[in-house]
TrEMBL record:
Keywords: Repeat, TPR repeat. Pfam families: TPR_12. TPR repeats lie at residues 13-46. It comes from the Eukaryota. InterPro entries: TPR-like_helical_dom_sf, TPR_rpt. It comes from Adineta ricciae (Rotifer). SMART domains: TPR. This is Tetratricopeptide repeat protein.
Length: 123
């Protein structure tokens, strides 16, 4: 007999994140945003959360907003990632962040800023 167990808060956040990933791959972007936002809301309340894990969730939200050409909301989440990276430097995550934000600025036709971010990603 299988006993029903409840998920802890972190597990719920992870499940919402994975559901967001599924919806993103299905190109159901508004549903993806909803799931990612639920994940982020939970993660923001967990005091012991790994901040890079939270930053990754912000990153997926930014990417989905880019998918629907909502660049202003994408920038909101990229700014949140940047604040986390200022306190928790991680070279691999920084490279990914700079690359993704550089693509956003390319979409906005801000080529000097896009170039600067891409160069930072290489270093």
């Amino acid at each position: 007999m299988i006993q029903k167990q409840t998920l802890n808060t972190q597990d719920k956040a992870d499940v919402y994140h994975r559901l967001g990933m599924i919806k993103r791959y299905q190109a159901k972007y508004l549903e993806a945003i909803s799931f990612f936002q639920k994940s982020v809301q939970i993660k923001e309340m967990i005091s012991s959360i790994n901040l890079l894990d939270l930053a990754a969730s912000y990153g997926y939200l930014a990417l989905v907003y880019e998918n629907i050409a909502d660049y202003s909301n994408a920038l909101v989440y990229y700014d949140k990632i940047e604040k986390i990276l200022e306190k928790n430097p991680n070279s691999l995550f920084l490279a990914t962040f700079c690359n993704n934000k550089g693509v956003l600025y390319t979409n906005l036709a801000d080529y000097p800023r896009a170039k600067s971010l891409q160069e930072t990603a290489l270093n």
